[in-house]
Amino acid sequence: MPDSGDLPLPPRASAVHSTRGRLSTRISVLLLCLQESARRDAPVRSRAFDASSAFSPTSDEFQQRPADPILEATPTHRLPWRVTWTLELFQQMRPLQGPIQDRLGDDESLIMRVLHVQRVKGIGGSERHLLALLPALVERGVDVRMCVMQMGDGRRFVEAMRLEGIDVTVQTAGRDVNPATVFELFREIERFRPDVVHTHLVHADLHGLIAARARRVPAVSSVHGTPAFYTKEPYRSLGRLSGRLAARRIAISDHVARFLLDNQLARRDRLSVVHYGIDAGEPPSAETRRTARHGLGLDGHHVVFGIASRLIPGKGHDLLIEAFGRVARRDASVVLIVAGDGPERDNLEQLVDAHCPPGSVRFLGFLDSVGGFMAACDVLAFPTQPELGEGFGLAALEGMAAGRPVVATNVGSLPEVVLSGVTGLIVGPHSATALEHALAELSEDAPLRGRMGAAGSARAREVFPLDAMVTKTLAIYEELI
What we know:
Elements: H1 11-19, H2 25-39, H3 69-72, H4 81-90, H5 100-104, E1 112-120, H6 125-139, E2 142-150, H7 154-163, E3 167-172, H8 179-192, E4 196-200, H9 201-214, E5 219-223, H10 235-245, E6 248-251, H11 254-262, E7 271-273, H12 286-295, E8 303-308, H13 317-330, E9 334-339, H14 345-355, E10 361-365, H15 371-376, E11 379-382, H16 394-401, E12 406-409, H17 414-417, E13 424-427, H18 432-443, H19 446-463, H20 466-480
Parallel strand pairs: 1-2, 1-4, 2-3, 4-5, 5-6, 6-7, 8-9, 8-11, 9-10, 11-12, 12-13
Helix pairs in contact: 2-4, 6-20, 8-9, 9-10, 13-14, 13-18, 16-19
């Protein structure tokens, strides 16, 4: 058989291929041949490809099916060509068959089987959410598998999830729009035979929802933020496609829910708000606080501000460093500790050199657990900026659970989490002066820090408990099966 690069392309693909040649020719030809074969209801024959480049389905997995009304209504002329071809192809695939209990086997303790999918390049808010949610689902009798499309430091998440006893499968994350990824997820669904597929973030939505639709497995999509790209084409159409393919969409805050409805990314009758929840427990003891501080070379006279997030643009580290530097020049007792790592670290260290007294800011790097970090802090800062599209602010909730007042910006869902004047202070974004005043007010008033910390701890336990998040998520699954 000649190499696929020598095969003639169908006429309608030749122009696309000449300008969009970044997708490998082999995948392009495979998709087109499968598409044309399925339309003619002819046997599909394709040579085996290396797993890293393409999935090679067999002929008995394809049959003519009625047109899918959801996909029929999708404005495919606005979608990238790879997505359009993949959608047309997957309308021909057959669904999973058999009742739920047949697929669960003989274990009567299991109530359902759920496959979670996310592209992961480190451990941020959505990953910490999954590290809390999935073990809790297992405790409720759900057979859970986590499919990770891995890139960057995604191995940290994989290792952490496996330490929690969760079954994890790993795929190499490919291009942003990659039919091969859809095929791999299609195979994963075939192997695991879930009752529900639950996708997280845009890349898992795009690939996982198509694969789930192809297998006629109901899918849930959790939206963890409000990225600005959803307001522009072709991402708007991709987002609306995800909204059509998902049987339910979960918004992690009221702010995210409004964003989805305003941009027609979800139907109101399919949308549920499920806030992040955490197992708050009791705030750290005085002894735990002393131990955590001792490990950082700090003692009781220091007033410690902390920020825990990836070092990426939009998280507000630059604004915080400028504001903190002004406070630190007046008060030598204040210290800023920074947990997390990322591409902005070098730039932020240069800002520290320019704005802050020597030794007043400490970069701790990536931390496997933020418990000790929160115990060492007196105040947690969360100065995220509007351009990031923050969906919740999990670190702010973790700070409240630890009994620490939170200084946050009036951005996204943060006012849903932090009550200004009660559990912390809310300031406007882009204002180093407003942030400076909030930091100074809390650094000078220990009783105020104590009152706000106690109120935050109570709010975390009462309003954002882990059990409520799990119960609401399970209720959505049960509606679908």
